[in-house]
User: Fold this.
Amino acid sequence: MYWSRFLSLHALWVTVSSMMQHYPSVWGHYDVCKTQIYTEEGKVWDYMACQPEARDMIKYVKVTLDPPDITCGDPPETFCAMGNPYMCNNECDASTQELAHPPELMFDLEGRHPSTFWQSTTWKDYPKPLHVNITLSWNKTIELTDNIVITFESGRPDQMILEKSLDYGRTWQPYQYYATDCLDAFHMDPKSVRDLSQHTVLEIICTEEYSTGYMTNSKIIHFEIKDRFAFFAGPRLHNMASLYGQLDTTKKLRDFFTITDLRIRLLRPATGEIYVDEQHLARYFYAISDIRVYGRCKCNLHATGCKEENKRLLCECEHNTTGPDCGKCKKNYQGRPWSPGSYLPIPKGTANICIPSISSIGTNVCDNELLHCQNGGTCINNVRCQCPPAYTGILCEKLKCERDPGGCGQNSGQGARAHRPLVLLTALLAAAGLCTW
Assistant:
Protein backbone atom coordinates (compact mmCIF):
# COMPACT_ATOMS: atom_id res chain seq x y z
CA MET A 1 0.00 0.00 0.00
CA TYR A 2 2.77 2.41 0.92
CA TRP A 3 4.63 1.55 -2.28
CA SER A 4 1.57 2.24 -4.44
CA ARG A 5 0.99 5.51 -2.60
CA PHE A 6 4.61 6.47 -3.24
CA LEU A 7 4.22 5.66 -6.92
CA SER A 8 1.06 7.80 -7.08
CA LEU A 9 2.82 10.74 -5.44
CA HIS A 10 5.79 10.28 -7.75
CA ALA A 11 3.52 10.25 -10.79
CA LEU A 12 1.79 13.42 -9.56
CA TRP A 13 5.15 15.12 -9.03
CA VAL A 14 6.31 14.15 -12.53
CA THR A 15 3.10 15.58 -13.97
CA VAL A 16 3.39 18.83 -12.01
CA SER A 17 7.07 19.16 -12.93
CA SER A 18 6.26 18.63 -16.58
CA MET A 19 3.53 21.27 -16.44
CA MET A 20 5.88 23.72 -14.76
CA GLN A 21 8.51 23.15 -17.44
CA HIS A 22 6.03 23.96 -20.19
CA TYR A 23 4.23 26.78 -18.42
CA PRO A 24 5.32 30.17 -19.80
CA SER A 25 6.42 31.73 -16.52
CA VAL A 26 6.94 35.05 -18.22
CA TRP A 27 7.76 37.12 -15.16
CA GLY A 28 8.48 34.46 -12.55
CA HIS A 29 12.21 35.15 -12.25
CA TYR A 30 14.06 37.74 -10.18
CA ASP A 31 11.74 37.50 -7.18
CA VAL A 32 14.49 37.68 -4.52
CA CYS A 33 16.80 40.65 -3.91
CA LYS A 34 19.33 38.94 -1.66
CA THR A 35 20.06 35.69 0.11
CA GLN A 36 22.58 34.61 2.72
CA ILE A 37 25.36 32.28 1.66
CA TYR A 38 28.26 30.68 3.50
CA THR A 39 31.85 31.35 2.44
CA GLU A 40 35.27 30.79 4.00
CA GLU A 41 34.79 34.14 5.68
CA GLY A 42 31.45 33.09 7.14
CA LYS A 43 27.86 34.04 6.39
CA VAL A 44 27.50 36.90 3.89
CA TRP A 45 24.79 38.41 1.70
CA ASP A 46 24.59 37.47 -1.96
CA TYR A 47 22.77 40.18 -3.92
CA MET A 48 20.85 39.71 -7.15
CA ALA A 49 18.58 41.66 -9.48
CA CYS A 50 14.93 41.62 -8.42
CA GLN A 51 11.56 42.96 -9.51
CA PRO A 52 7.95 43.08 -8.22
CA GLU A 53 5.35 40.56 -9.26
CA ALA A 54 3.06 41.55 -12.14
CA ARG A 55 -0.42 42.61 -11.08
CA ASP A 56 -3.68 44.19 -12.29
CA MET A 57 -2.64 47.84 -12.57
CA ILE A 58 -6.20 49.09 -13.11
CA LYS A 59 -6.67 48.85 -9.33
CA TYR A 60 -4.40 51.87 -8.96
CA VAL A 61 -5.39 53.97 -11.98
CA LYS A 62 -6.79 57.50 -12.11
CA VAL A 63 -9.04 58.21 -15.10
CA THR A 64 -9.62 61.58 -16.76
CA LEU A 65 -12.02 62.35 -19.62
CA ASP A 66 -11.68 65.15 -22.14
CA PRO A 67 -14.02 66.88 -22.71
CA PRO A 68 -15.05 66.48 -19.05
CA ASP A 69 -18.78 66.65 -19.83
CA ILE A 70 -18.69 63.92 -22.49
CA THR A 71 -20.33 61.28 -20.28
CA CYS A 72 -24.01 60.79 -21.09
CA GLY A 73 -26.82 61.49 -18.65
CA ASP A 74 -26.57 65.20 -17.83
CA PRO A 75 -29.00 66.16 -19.23
CA PRO A 76 -30.73 62.77 -19.72
CA GLU A 77 -30.91 61.51 -23.28
CA THR A 78 -32.15 58.48 -25.18
CA PHE A 79 -29.97 56.21 -27.31
CA CYS A 80 -30.45 53.23 -29.54
CA ALA A 81 -30.10 49.65 -28.35
CA MET A 82 -26.73 48.11 -29.05
CA GLY A 83 -28.16 44.91 -30.49
CA ASN A 84 -30.79 46.74 -32.52
CA PRO A 85 -29.58 50.18 -33.64
CA TYR A 86 -33.10 51.22 -34.68
CA MET A 87 -34.66 50.58 -31.27
CA CYS A 88 -34.00 54.00 -29.74
CA ASN A 89 -35.83 54.02 -26.43
CA ASN A 90 -32.96 53.39 -23.98
CA GLU A 91 -32.17 56.16 -21.54
CA CYS A 92 -29.00 57.49 -19.92
CA ASP A 93 -29.66 59.54 -16.79
CA ALA A 94 -26.83 60.52 -14.44
CA SER A 95 -29.25 61.21 -11.59
CA THR A 96 -30.56 57.63 -11.52
CA GLN A 97 -28.15 54.89 -10.49
CA GLU A 98 -29.71 52.23 -12.71
CA LEU A 99 -29.53 54.49 -15.76
CA ALA A 100 -26.15 56.17 -15.12
CA HIS A 101 -22.94 55.25 -16.94
CA PRO A 102 -20.07 57.06 -15.12
CA PRO A 103 -16.35 56.51 -15.96
CA GLU A 104 -15.69 54.22 -12.98
CA LEU A 105 -17.86 51.54 -14.64
CA MET A 106 -14.99 50.98 -17.08
CA PHE A 107 -13.10 49.36 -14.19
CA ASP A 108 -15.69 47.72 -11.94
CA LEU A 109 -16.02 43.99 -11.47
CA GLU A 110 -17.90 42.40 -14.34
CA GLY A 111 -20.37 39.58 -13.95
CA ARG A 112 -23.51 41.51 -13.08
CA HIS A 113 -26.42 41.45 -15.51
CA PRO A 114 -26.82 43.62 -17.44
CA SER A 115 -23.12 44.42 -17.81
CA THR A 116 -22.01 47.80 -16.55
CA PHE A 117 -20.23 50.32 -18.74
CA TRP A 118 -19.22 53.94 -19.22
CA GLN A 119 -21.03 55.69 -22.07
CA SER A 120 -20.50 58.94 -23.92
CA THR A 121 -23.13 61.30 -25.21
CA THR A 122 -24.54 60.43 -28.63
CA TRP A 123 -23.32 61.94 -31.91
CA LYS A 124 -26.06 64.58 -31.77
CA ASP A 125 -23.71 67.32 -33.04
CA TYR A 126 -22.86 65.54 -36.29
CA PRO A 127 -21.08 66.43 -38.60
CA LYS A 128 -18.86 67.87 -35.86
CA PRO A 129 -16.48 65.03 -34.86
CA LEU A 130 -17.30 63.06 -31.74
CA HIS A 131 -13.86 63.03 -30.10
CA VAL A 132 -13.11 61.68 -26.62
CA ASN A 133 -9.79 61.32 -24.81
CA ILE A 134 -9.67 58.80 -21.96
CA THR A 135 -6.43 59.19 -19.97
CA LEU A 136 -5.26 56.52 -17.54
CA SER A 137 -2.62 57.75 -15.09
CA TRP A 138 -0.63 55.91 -12.41
CA ASN A 139 1.78 58.61 -11.21
CA LYS A 140 4.32 55.78 -11.37
CA THR A 141 6.45 54.16 -14.02
CA ILE A 142 4.90 50.85 -15.08
CA GLU A 143 6.36 47.95 -17.08
CA LEU A 144 3.68 46.19 -19.14
CA THR A 145 3.66 42.39 -18.96
CA ASP A 146 0.47 41.40 -20.78
CA ASN A 147 -1.86 42.62 -23.51
CA ILE A 148 -3.83 45.82 -22.99
CA VAL A 149 -7.48 44.82 -23.50
CA ILE A 150 -10.38 47.26 -24.03
CA THR A 151 -13.93 45.91 -24.19
CA PHE A 152 -16.52 48.07 -25.96
CA GLU A 153 -20.28 47.77 -25.53
CA SER A 154 -21.16 50.10 -28.41
CA GLY A 155 -19.25 48.36 -31.18
CA ARG A 156 -15.56 49.02 -31.65
CA PRO A 157 -14.84 52.53 -32.95
CA ASP A 158 -14.21 53.16 -36.64
CA GLN A 159 -11.14 55.21 -35.72
CA MET A 160 -9.06 55.16 -32.56
CA ILE A 161 -5.47 55.79 -31.41
CA LEU A 162 -3.85 54.26 -28.35
CA GLU A 163 -1.09 56.52 -27.01
CA LYS A 164 1.49 56.28 -24.22
CA SER A 165 3.48 58.69 -22.10
CA LEU A 166 6.76 58.10 -20.32
CA ASP A 167 6.85 61.49 -18.59
CA TYR A 168 3.55 61.63 -16.68
CA GLY A 169 1.51 63.05 -19.56
CA ARG A 170 3.79 65.90 -20.60
CA THR A 171 4.45 64.30 -23.99
CA TRP A 172 2.67 61.53 -25.87
CA GLN A 173 3.65 58.98 -28.51
CA PRO A 174 1.33 56.71 -30.53
CA TYR A 175 1.27 53.05 -29.52
CA GLN A 176 -1.10 51.78 -32.21
CA TYR A 177 -3.69 53.05 -34.69
CA TYR A 178 -7.05 51.33 -35.18
CA ALA A 179 -9.41 51.93 -38.11
CA THR A 180 -11.88 50.31 -40.47
CA ASP A 181 -9.81 51.88 -43.27
CA CYS A 182 -6.23 52.69 -42.24
CA LEU A 183 -5.30 54.31 -45.51
CA ASP A 184 -8.27 56.66 -45.44
CA ALA A 185 -8.11 57.47 -41.71
CA PHE A 186 -4.37 57.71 -41.05
CA HIS A 187 -2.66 57.42 -44.46
CA MET A 188 -1.08 54.15 -43.36
CA ASP A 189 -1.15 50.70 -44.89
CA PRO A 190 -2.92 48.21 -42.63
CA LYS A 191 -0.77 45.72 -40.73
CA SER A 192 -1.05 43.29 -37.85
CA VAL A 193 1.53 42.38 -35.25
CA ARG A 194 2.04 39.10 -37.13
CA ASP A 195 3.58 41.15 -39.95
CA LEU A 196 6.34 42.40 -37.65
CA SER A 197 9.67 40.80 -36.67
CA GLN A 198 12.47 41.23 -34.15
CA HIS A 199 13.88 44.03 -36.28
CA THR A 200 10.56 45.87 -36.72
CA VAL A 201 8.95 45.14 -33.34
CA LEU A 202 9.04 48.84 -32.40
CA GLU A 203 7.19 49.91 -35.54
CA ILE A 204 3.96 51.80 -34.90
CA ILE A 205 1.26 50.17 -37.03
CA CYS A 206 -2.34 50.77 -38.03
CA THR A 207 -4.52 47.70 -37.78
CA GLU A 208 -7.97 47.02 -39.21
CA GLU A 209 -8.25 43.79 -37.24
CA TYR A 210 -10.26 45.31 -34.37
CA SER A 211 -12.47 47.87 -36.08
CA THR A 212 -15.92 46.61 -36.99
CA GLY A 213 -19.46 47.72 -36.25
CA TYR A 214 -22.36 46.31 -34.25
CA MET A 215 -21.37 42.65 -34.18
CA THR A 216 -21.93 40.89 -30.86
CA ASN A 217 -18.63 39.01 -31.13
CA SER A 218 -16.54 42.07 -31.94
CA LYS A 219 -16.31 44.02 -28.72
CA ILE A 220 -12.64 43.65 -27.80
CA ILE A 221 -9.57 45.62 -28.85
CA HIS A 222 -6.04 44.43 -28.02
CA PHE A 223 -2.65 46.03 -27.86
CA GLU A 224 -0.52 42.93 -28.23
CA ILE A 225 2.29 42.82 -25.69
CA LYS A 226 2.85 39.06 -25.58
CA ASP A 227 2.97 38.72 -29.36
CA ARG A 228 5.86 41.17 -29.32
CA PHE A 229 7.56 39.27 -26.50
CA ALA A 230 7.26 36.14 -28.63
CA PHE A 231 9.64 37.53 -31.26
CA PHE A 232 12.41 37.05 -28.68
CA ALA A 233 11.06 34.38 -26.31
CA GLY A 234 9.41 32.07 -28.83
CA PRO A 235 5.70 31.41 -29.55
CA ARG A 236 5.02 29.97 -26.09
CA LEU A 237 7.38 32.36 -24.30
CA HIS A 238 9.68 29.54 -23.20
CA ASN A 239 12.97 31.28 -23.95
CA MET A 240 12.66 34.12 -21.48
CA ALA A 241 16.44 34.38 -21.20
CA SER A 242 16.52 35.73 -24.75
CA LEU A 243 13.85 38.34 -23.99
CA TYR A 244 15.55 39.40 -20.75
CA GLY A 245 18.82 39.76 -22.59
CA GLN A 246 17.22 41.99 -25.20
CA LEU A 247 15.45 44.12 -22.59
CA ASP A 248 18.72 44.47 -20.71
CA THR A 249 20.80 45.62 -23.64
CA THR A 250 18.30 47.55 -25.78
CA LYS A 251 16.96 50.65 -24.06
CA LYS A 252 14.48 51.45 -26.85
CA LEU A 253 12.92 48.01 -26.48
CA ARG A 254 12.73 48.36 -22.69
CA ASP A 255 11.17 51.81 -23.01
CA PHE A 256 8.62 50.51 -25.53
CA PHE A 257 6.99 48.38 -22.83
CA THR A 258 7.27 51.11 -20.17
CA ILE A 259 4.61 53.74 -19.44
CA THR A 260 3.46 56.25 -16.87
CA ASP A 261 0.14 57.00 -18.62
CA LEU A 262 -2.06 55.62 -21.39
CA ARG A 263 -4.46 57.62 -23.52
CA ILE A 264 -7.33 56.19 -25.57
CA ARG A 265 -8.25 58.67 -28.30
CA LEU A 266 -11.70 57.87 -29.69
CA LEU A 267 -12.04 59.66 -33.04
CA ARG A 268 -15.08 58.15 -34.75
CA PRO A 269 -17.74 55.85 -33.26
CA ALA A 270 -18.79 52.59 -34.82
CA THR A 271 -21.13 53.21 -37.74
CA GLY A 272 -21.23 49.75 -39.28
CA GLU A 273 -21.42 51.37 -42.70
CA ILE A 274 -19.76 53.98 -44.89
CA TYR A 275 -22.33 56.72 -44.39
CA VAL A 276 -23.72 58.16 -41.19
CA ASP A 277 -27.51 57.92 -40.83
CA GLU A 278 -28.30 61.53 -39.93
CA GLN A 279 -31.90 60.60 -39.11
CA HIS A 280 -30.78 58.31 -36.30
CA LEU A 281 -27.78 59.97 -34.65
CA ALA A 282 -28.67 58.34 -31.30
CA ARG A 283 -27.20 55.18 -32.81
CA TYR A 284 -23.68 56.54 -32.54
CA PHE A 285 -21.74 56.82 -29.27
CA TYR A 286 -18.91 55.17 -27.34
CA ALA A 287 -19.37 52.72 -24.49
CA ILE A 288 -16.62 50.80 -22.66
CA SER A 289 -17.35 48.07 -20.13
CA ASP A 290 -13.84 46.95 -19.21
CA ILE A 291 -10.17 47.95 -19.51
CA ARG A 292 -7.37 45.59 -18.50
CA VAL A 293 -3.76 46.65 -17.98
CA TYR A 294 -1.36 44.16 -16.41
CA GLY A 295 2.16 45.13 -15.43
CA ARG A 296 4.56 45.77 -12.61
CA CYS A 297 6.01 48.77 -10.87
CA LYS A 298 9.29 49.70 -12.47
CA CYS A 299 11.88 49.55 -9.70
CA ASN A 300 15.04 49.31 -11.82
CA LEU A 301 15.56 45.71 -10.61
CA HIS A 302 16.12 46.93 -7.04
CA ALA A 303 12.87 45.76 -5.35
CA THR A 304 10.41 42.88 -5.16
CA GLY A 305 7.64 44.91 -3.53
CA CYS A 306 5.51 47.89 -4.53
CA LYS A 307 3.14 49.49 -2.03
CA GLU A 308 0.38 52.06 -2.25
CA GLU A 309 1.01 55.05 0.00
CA ASN A 310 -1.15 58.17 -0.01
CA LYS A 311 -2.81 56.90 -3.21
CA ARG A 312 0.57 56.57 -4.89
CA LEU A 313 2.56 53.49 -5.82
CA LEU A 314 6.09 53.35 -4.42
CA CYS A 315 8.78 50.70 -4.82
CA GLU A 316 9.96 49.06 -1.59
CA CYS A 317 13.59 49.57 -2.49
CA GLU A 318 16.51 47.34 -1.51
CA HIS A 319 20.20 47.31 -2.51
CA ASN A 320 20.59 50.59 -0.55
CA THR A 321 18.54 52.46 -3.15
CA THR A 322 15.66 54.88 -2.64
CA GLY A 323 13.09 56.92 -4.56
CA PRO A 324 9.72 56.04 -6.18
CA ASP A 325 11.51 53.88 -8.78
CA CYS A 326 14.61 53.06 -6.65
CA GLY A 327 16.33 55.51 -8.95
CA LYS A 328 19.07 56.79 -6.65
CA CYS A 329 21.36 55.69 -3.84
CA LYS A 330 20.49 56.25 -0.21
CA LYS A 331 22.35 58.80 1.85
CA ASN A 332 25.81 57.57 2.84
CA TYR A 333 25.66 54.91 0.10
CA GLN A 334 26.97 56.95 -2.81
CA GLY A 335 30.40 55.37 -3.08
CA ARG A 336 29.85 54.94 -6.80
CA PRO A 337 27.26 56.27 -9.29
CA TRP A 338 23.79 54.73 -9.07
CA SER A 339 23.04 52.11 -11.69
CA PRO A 340 19.94 49.98 -12.43
CA GLY A 341 20.15 46.28 -11.84
CA SER A 342 20.78 43.99 -14.77
CA TYR A 343 18.94 40.85 -15.91
CA LEU A 344 22.31 39.42 -16.94
CA PRO A 345 23.79 36.98 -16.32
CA ILE A 346 20.74 34.71 -16.33
CA PRO A 347 19.16 33.65 -13.98
CA LYS A 348 20.20 35.90 -11.05
CA GLY A 349 21.31 39.00 -12.89
CA THR A 350 23.51 41.68 -11.36
CA ALA A 351 22.28 43.74 -8.41
CA ASN A 352 24.55 46.78 -8.87
CA ILE A 353 24.04 47.67 -5.22
CA CYS A 354 24.83 51.12 -3.90
CA ILE A 355 27.95 51.01 -1.76
CA PRO A 356 28.91 53.17 1.23
CA SER A 357 30.34 56.60 0.60
CA ILE A 358 33.99 57.22 1.42
CA SER A 359 32.97 59.79 4.04
CA SER A 360 30.84 57.21 5.87
CA ILE A 361 33.55 54.60 6.29
CA GLY A 362 34.96 56.32 9.38
CA THR A 363 31.69 55.99 11.28
CA ASN A 364 30.59 52.62 9.89
CA VAL A 365 33.66 50.52 9.31
CA CYS A 366 31.93 47.14 9.21
CA ASP A 367 28.53 45.49 9.29
CA ASN A 368 26.98 42.17 8.42
CA GLU A 369 25.81 43.16 4.97
CA LEU A 370 28.19 45.22 2.82
CA LEU A 371 31.34 45.66 4.89
CA HIS A 372 31.98 42.17 6.20
CA CYS A 373 35.07 41.53 8.32
CA GLN A 374 37.27 39.14 6.35
CA ASN A 375 39.35 36.10 7.25
CA GLY A 376 37.48 35.32 10.45
CA GLY A 377 37.49 38.86 11.83
CA THR A 378 34.73 40.08 14.14
CA CYS A 379 32.85 43.38 13.73
CA ILE A 380 32.90 45.35 16.99
CA ASN A 381 30.05 47.91 17.27
CA ASN A 382 30.31 48.70 13.56
CA VAL A 383 33.43 50.78 14.21
CA ARG A 384 36.27 48.27 13.87
CA CYS A 385 37.14 44.72 12.93
CA GLN A 386 38.88 42.57 15.51
CA CYS A 387 41.28 40.57 13.35
CA PRO A 388 42.94 37.15 13.83
CA PRO A 389 46.65 37.37 14.74
CA ALA A 390 47.91 36.92 11.19
CA TYR A 391 45.71 39.61 9.59
CA THR A 392 45.38 43.36 9.61
CA GLY A 393 43.65 46.13 7.66
CA ILE A 394 40.32 47.90 8.05
CA LEU A 395 38.43 44.69 7.32
CA CYS A 396 41.17 42.18 8.16
CA GLU A 397 41.75 41.90 4.46
CA LYS A 398 45.58 41.98 4.56
CA LEU A 399 48.21 39.64 5.85
CA LYS A 400 50.53 41.16 8.46
CA CYS A 401 53.49 39.48 6.81
CA GLU A 402 53.02 41.66 3.74
CA ARG A 403 54.51 44.51 5.79
CA ASP A 404 57.65 42.52 6.60
CA PRO A 405 60.78 42.91 4.44
CA GLY A 406 60.67 39.24 3.47
CA GLY A 407 57.02 39.37 2.50
CA CYS A 408 54.72 36.37 2.72
CA GLY A 409 56.84 33.46 1.61
CA GLN A 410 56.01 29.79 1.77
CA ASN A 411 57.68 29.56 5.16
CA SER A 412 55.44 32.14 6.65
CA GLY A 413 52.53 29.74 6.59
CA GLN A 414 50.27 32.49 5.32
CA GLY A 415 51.00 32.57 1.60
CA ALA A 416 48.15 30.25 0.74
CA ARG A 417 45.58 32.77 1.98
CA ALA A 418 47.22 35.91 0.65
CA HIS A 419 45.64 38.39 -1.74
CA ARG A 420 41.96 37.96 -0.93
CA PRO A 421 40.96 41.61 -0.44
CA LEU A 422 37.33 42.58 -0.39
CA VAL A 423 36.38 43.92 -3.79
CA LEU A 424 34.07 46.50 -2.28
CA LEU A 425 36.75 47.88 0.02
CA THR A 426 39.23 47.99 -2.85
CA ALA A 427 36.90 50.17 -4.84
CA LEU A 428 36.24 52.45 -1.91
CA LEU A 429 39.85 52.92 -0.88
CA ALA A 430 41.03 53.28 -4.47
CA ALA A 431 38.52 56.07 -4.98
CA ALA A 432 39.83 57.77 -1.87
CA GLY A 433 43.48 57.35 -2.86
CA LEU A 434 44.09 55.08 0.15
CA CYS A 435 44.58 51.75 -1.65
CA THR A 436 47.97 50.23 -0.82
CA TRP A 437 48.01 47.13 -3.02
The mean pLDDT is 83. The first strand starts at residue 34 and ends at 39.
